[in-house]
Specification:
- Helix content is 6%, strand content 39%.
- It contains two helices and 14 strands.
- The longest helix has 10 residues.
- The radius of gyration is 19 Å and the shape is elongated.
Length: 239
């Protein structure tokens, strides 16, 4: 039974969180008193009447410049008037952001990762009552020399429908601090990659003059950040 359920779930995983489309023109706003932001989130498949699931990510995280480690909270919430039914939350990393562990969740096998992603976990909050939410502690690493994105799809327990997807939404900074103990990153901001200690270059002329690496960093920035949806895929028949 366990093997059959695993096959059903992994077979219905979706092909990709698109990471090259333009940033969404709107941002879902967290309810008053609710921490985090739904920026880069969008409803996908129609949920049952009275069910409104969304996700929240912190507006700001901090990356340890020596270890590349960072901590992220991922919240799934049912803001509707009825229970959500059995649902699951996926936490997926892209590019320079790699998810190392999500408390209480199961790592996705490499062969089942969405196209373009580097890591992923499946969380099973079960049935969320109206107004209920559940927050997961996410351990990750962030390579500050690259851009980095995270994606949070909320699916039915069997993975056949995706009610909501946040991302792939970037964390980043346009003002790198490679020589500081930690670098703060903002949600919805494309990271400006920079090598440690390489935020400035010598300028020819009077001694001591330096100029920021503005043009070099800008060339590495991406215009696309937020995915629109996680497209479904039917299992292929074996011949």
């Amino acid at each position: 039974m366990s093997s059959h359920r695993t096959t059903t779930i992994t077979g219905s995983l979706l092909t990709a969180c698109f990471s090259t489309v333009m940033i969404l023109s709107y941002s879902a706003v967290a309810d008053d008193g609710e921490p985090g932001s739904g920026k880069g989130g969008k409803a996908v498949d129609e949920a049952p009447a009275g069910v409104r699931v969304t996700t929240l990510l912190p507006e700001k995280i901090s990356v340890d410049n020596s270890t590349q480690k960072t901590a992220i909270s991922a919240t799934v919430k049912n803001g509707g008037t009825k229970g959500s039914g059995d649902i699951r939350l996926l936490v997926v990393g892209f590019d320079g952001l790699k998810v190392k562990n999500v408390e209480g969740c199961t790592a996705m096998a490499e062969k089942n990762l969405p196209e373009g992603s580097n890591s992923g976990f499946i969380c099973s909050p079960g049935n969320l009552a109206a107004g209920e939410s559940k927050t997961y502690d996410v351990e990750a690493t962030f390579d500050l020399g690259r851009t980095g994105k995270i994606c949070l799809p909320v699916q039915t327990g069997d993975g056949k429908k995706t009610y909501w997807q946040q991302g792939p939404v970037p964390f980043g900074t346009t003002n790198p601090s490679p020589n500081a103990p930690a670098t703060p990153l903002l949600l919805g901001t494309d990271n400006k990659p920079v090598a440690p200690g390489g935020d400035r270059l010598p300028k020819t002329g009077p001694a001591g003059e330096v100029v920021p690496l503005g043009m070099a960093g800008a060339a590495l920035m991406s215009a696309g950040a937020a995915g629109l949806w996680w497209a479904g895929r039917r299992p292929r028949r074996e011949h």
